[in-house]
Amino acid sequence: MQIEDVKLTARSNPSQRIIAAAIIFAFLYFASDVVVPLLLAVLIAYFLDPVVAVLERIHIPRALGALVVMLGVTALFAGLGYLVVTRAEQFLADWPRYSGAMRHVTTAFDRQMTTLEKGVEAISPAPEKGRTPARAVEPPPVREWLLRGAGSLYSILVVATFVPFLVFFMLAAKPRIWKATIDLFPDEHRERVRGALEQVSLMLRSFVAGNGLIAIILMLLSWGFFLLIHLDNPFLLGSVSGVLNLVPYLGAVLAWIPPFLIGLSQWNTVGPYLGIAAVLTFLHFVGLNVLMPAIVGRRVHLNALAVTAALLFWGWIWGAIGLILAIPITATVKVICDYSEGWEPVGRWLGE
Questions:
Q1: pLDDT tens, 61-98?
Q2: Whole-angstrom distance, CA of residue 258 vs CA of residue 270
Q3: What is the pTM of this model?
Q4: CA distances from 158 to 20, 55, 71, 319, 324 (A)
Q5: Per-domain residue ranges for the chain?
Q6: Are 39 and 329 in contact (CB under 8 A)?
Q7: Helix extents (H) in 58-94
Q8: In whole angstroms, what separates CA 8 from the centre of its chain?
């Protein structure tokens, strides 16, 4: 009887794991307003920790050093935000010109679609008698779009409000949190846990620093290209292009959209748009395949399949912020698998 019970328990383990995984993913989906700020704070704290450690070595208390670092980072982002807002004001001042060009393009597109629909109706068979014609799907009301926008704005405000405080507390209490985390495990496993935490720390720090440097390089290159072709608002477009190009694969296409919209008021031929698409795609290719391996190195060694699957999954779970967090989350999972007995094959599968 005992043997049968053991076999039954062993058979139920896979289903229990599937149920546990489903519960975890459901929690990540429904608790995104809590989980996402925590993950962003962890990512930023790992990046800023070396600066706090340097201040601690020169006999500045860790809490005071964390406060000084956070104030410096806040001032830096405030300065960058001021530059972007200044350029954005110029863009808003020119918006009537851009909106008129977009309205002209949209009207021409609607006219072509109407002509196409009439041609299809002319050659399609007449509807059967007694059959109710299909009703056109009405667009969602404006109130629904406003509610969606309010929800997104709420998420941004939550992140902007809580993340700085979370980062400060994580930096100030980092040694205690580190020790308490290691003490959660038995003595025989603590050395492996310490190694895994150090590897995760090194990987996340390299990832954030490398991506920040690559974003600056791509921003400057995009800015210079937009200046060369005399596109309006080159600094603002270059900044957006540099950030979007950090999103693997999708960023190359997303980076096309802002210069395309601005170019509607300047160009009436297809050539400039093809040139923008080609140059931004080339910059994305260089950033992903040349700069990323050279700067970030082998700290984040995930294969292309793992990266693509991670982008799809975390983008589906959390949207745009999921695309940003997909690679560090997956790389952290890989490090944990590498240091966990029985999970090494999963780590090898995720790796290069």
A1: 888 988 998 888 888 878 877 776 776 666 666 666 55
A2: 16
A3: 0.66
A4: 28, 30, 19, 16, 17
A5: 31-99+151-184
A6: yes
A7: 62-93
A8: 43
